[in-house]
Write a structure and sequence with these properties.
- The structure holds two protein chains of two kinds.
- Chain A has a domain of about 220 residues: f41 fragment of flagellin, N-terminal domain (Up-down Bundle).
- Helix content of chain A is about 65%, strand content about 5%.
- Chain A contains six helices and nine strands; from the N terminus they run αααβββββββββααα.
- The longest helix of chain B is centred in the middle third of the chain and has 62 residues.
- By secondary structure, chain B is an alpha+beta fold.
- In chain B, α2 packs parallel to α7.
- Classes of the chains: A mainly alpha, B alpha+beta.
Amino acid sequence: MRVTANTFPDTLVDQLSQLAVRQNRLQSQAATGQRIQLPEDDPTAMRRVIDLQNESKNLGQYQRNISTLKEYAGASFMAIKSLEKICDRAGEIATLADDTKSPEELRIYAIEINQLLEQSVQLANTKHRGDYLFGGTQTDKPPFTLGPVETNGRVNSVSYNGNSDLPQNEIAEDTMLTVQVPGSNTATTGTRGLIVDATSGADFFQHLISLRDNLYAGDTETIVKTDRVNLAKDEENILFHLGTNGAIQSRLETASTVAQTRGNSIEVLISNEADADLAQTLVRLNEAQNAYKAALQSGATILSRSLMDYLR
Amino acid sequence: MLDLYGTLSLGQRSLQTQRQGVEIAGHNLANVNNPAYTRQRLIIQTSQAVPSAIGPQGTGADGVAIQQLRNTLVDRQLQGEISTRGYLQAKQQALQYAQADLGQEIDRQSATAESASASEGVGAQYSLAEGLSDLFNNFQSLATNPTSMAERQVLMMKAQTLATQFNQVDQRLGELRGFLNESLQTDIDKVNQLVEEIARLNNQVFNSEVNGFGVANDLRDTRQAKIEELAGLTRIQTVEQANGMIDVAIEGQDLILGNQKIDSLEIHDAGSGQWLARTRSAGQNLTLTGGKMQGTIDARDRDVRKLKEDLNGLAALLIDEVNKIHIAGFSLNGSTGARFFNGTHAGDIEANVDLLNNPALVQASGSATAPGDNSAALAMAKLGNATFEPLNNQSFSQGYGQTVATLGQSLSSVNNQLTDQEVVEKLLKRQRDSYSGVSLDEEMTELMKFQKAFEASARLINTVDEMLDTVISLKR
């Protein structure tokens, strides 16, 4: 091939610009630690990274869902636990109240039961982050209200203002869960009610009212025959809810761990797609730099010499 | 047989010839950096011999022609390759703009799972992909905490951010289209100007060659450069006539016949702002096949348009699907029937301003009286993972991912094609250069050669002069 005056400079410029492009690319890979940055770098990997990042974000969201739900479950647990204690005490009183007790003693028990009633209504109206926990989806009103005070100074009814619907939440893709419990469920289907429940026959407030009235009346026979049995049903129902709550919390914990593990493995997948192998990148950058230097040096030597140097 | 005066004239012609050689070497040297230049050579022939007693005797040499060392085959090939490169370069440029307009990058430092929350608001990259997943994730947050005003407010702000992103990308792509149209107009003006110049050069070549002064080398060089410039803009067909003029046609439409400019190009609107080229006099619509102009048109009508349509489709579907659920839901106040997004496509999507002003109006509940119900919020959150037929049975995020990958794929393949094309073109250019290019070493040698010959010729004249003196002094 005939090499002309412009062959050298043209070729040198081409080679230098190619090497500059390569150095630039390797340098930005080394600086960012990323193999791909723009869609043109590797469209299919870009696509997978977008999908994976979306999945990773979704998992992060599920974890946030789970931690919010854990709060709710925790708040519910505290309320149910306290109700259980009240229920225990009421059962104890129902057991203590027999023929051996004087009417005066029974009256004192009745006053205690009345206190317990008011306390438990207050517990059933527990709020978390401004929402009533046991009103179903009717979270803006207190689920339970004490009825009017009768002439004898007593309250004879507690009404339920909530509903038996529950919000469902997603804790993993297509895995739904509800952490809440309705205050009352008069149907034998759906989530059992905390205070009133048709399945177990629980109606805690009404049973407390009945026990209290029977204590006032000194009707120990009914207390033994009916109230003790009824309160046992309430006890069973509340324990059922405690157990369920525990199960839900452990399920949330598991779901959170799964999401965390999955998030970590997705991170590895994204890294495989997008991250540069730093050792390899630096070695190649070094190569490119050496080639660049060599091209500059040889180019400078060749270009500065010509026949002209040897002519007079 | 030559007499002394004949020999004197031989020396004088020889001087002339060698001087011409020096001049041509000088001309070559002067044009060493002119890319359009083709090196020239003086063709030297022995002069007419005269008969002598011992046979025909030489009478020296004459310069008979100045020859251009041009390989028309390489020129022809190069012309086609230049059109292809012009096409790819224009396409690459347009797609790079589109890629920039889309603004989708991977920024791992700010987007890892652990650092996602930590890096929010510290200049982390935020594009439509993030906007889409944030929207659905905020619906999730709302579903988990349906009465929270904080979640509602964040949701509406994210919705507004996403809508603005759609607006901006759509607007930028619209501007890109306008920019590509403008560049097409500029190219057509340039084509017309080049056509005029080539026709004029044809005329000059013809005029200077018809008088029998040999080939008009330098005019041909200039014309070839103009033809190659034209080929970069659009693929052309050229035919060289016997009289040295070159006819130029685009897609079978004659633009130059001989020294006549037959037609020029103009823009015509093929409907809805889709600018295309056609011939002005013949009114023929042109379907170009190569060159910068077609690269611009292809990028505009295929990739940029598809990108814009895809994003519009995505936005329209998002508006429809979210609104469908939202309209049936109930707000904290029990109101219903409000839209979540206003608008119909990427250009005009916006979050409902009433909801933005009062996030309590976000209709997350499935019941007018139960604010703790989250069924509407949950249904909207689930849209994030749902697949839709218009998105080829993919989710919103996947649909967007496909859009990005499609653009990336087009750009990446253009990049590769262009690299290949540049290699081909470079090889051809080197080939041409090795045949037609000026070599300084060569010209310097030529220069010395002719200089020495010039000196020798002068010595001849000197010698003949001395001989004449000798002859004249015989008489004394």
